[in-house]
Design a protein that fits this description.
The protein has 188 residues and is an alpha+beta fold. It has 2 domains: 3-55; 83-184, Ribosomal protein S6/Translation elongation factor EF1B (Alpha-Beta Plaits). It is 52% helix and 23% strand. The protein contains 4 helices and 5 strands, in the order αααβββαββ. It has helices at residues 3-55, 57-73, 83-100, 135-143, and strands at 104-110, 114-116, 119-131, 150-157, 172-184. A hairpin with a 2-residue loop joins strand 2 and strand 3 (119-131). The radius of gyration is 39 Å and the shape is rod-shaped.
């Protein structure tokens, strides 16, 4: 083997040794540093996002206080994110009041809601049977409830046989009325 071939072989072995050292030692360390740098950059981005959110805290607290003030001023309004939910809340209240005074709700029909000036009028038409002696109490409890409810279009029908009326006043009257309340929908 000639000297030039020995040099070439030595240089080849040196290149292979350097390549192996690069692959086994240097490249993993460089990759670890690169991954660490990327993680640090990501954490700096997250920190900046958190600091931006923290800077918004006074504005968020102000908005929350405004919403709470607005909510407190709406105590007489029906709760519900939609007219259907508000109508359901009204129906639950009316049914509880009527049934607590020995009455019976025969039917309830939701009427189309109307909206004006940020308020939505939610109406339900009822057909109920309420004892004569308790009609005044039921009407009073409905119209003085919170949230506020209003009675409209009241139609009362007594039994055909007045002799069926007892002294205690528990003879049922057929009552048809519309109960409505208002819910806040916000400025239009």
């Amino acid at each position: 083997m000639t000297a030039s071939r020995q040099r070439l072989l030595a240089l080849g072995l040196l290149a292979v040794a350097i390549g192996l050292a690069w692959l086994i030692v240097i490249q993993p360390v460089a990759d670890a540093f690169s991954a660490q740098r990327d993680a640090i950059d990501d954490l700096h981005g997250q920190l900046a996002a958190y600091e931006a959110r923290i800077a918004l805290k006074p504005a968020v607290e102000m908005r929350l206080a405004e919403i709470k003030r607005h909510e407190a001023s709406n105590t007489g309004l029906i709760a519900g994110d939609s007219p259907e939910l508000a109508a359901s809340n009204i129906q639950n209240m009316v049914k509880a009041v009527i049934e607590s005074d020995a009455g019976q709700v025969r039917s309830a029909q939701n009427l189309a809601p109307t909206t004006a000036d940020g308020f939505q009028r939610v109406e339900i038409q009822y057909d109920a049977s309420i004892p004569i002696g308790r009609l005044k109490d039921v009407a009073y409890r409905l119209e003085t409830s919170v949230p506020y409810l209003f009675l409209d279009g009241i139609d009362l029908r007594a039994p055909e046989s007045w002799s069926a009326i007892t002294v205690e006043g528990d003879t049922p009257l057929q009552v048809q009325w519309t109960v409505h309340g208002y819910r806040w929908t916000g400025p239009q």
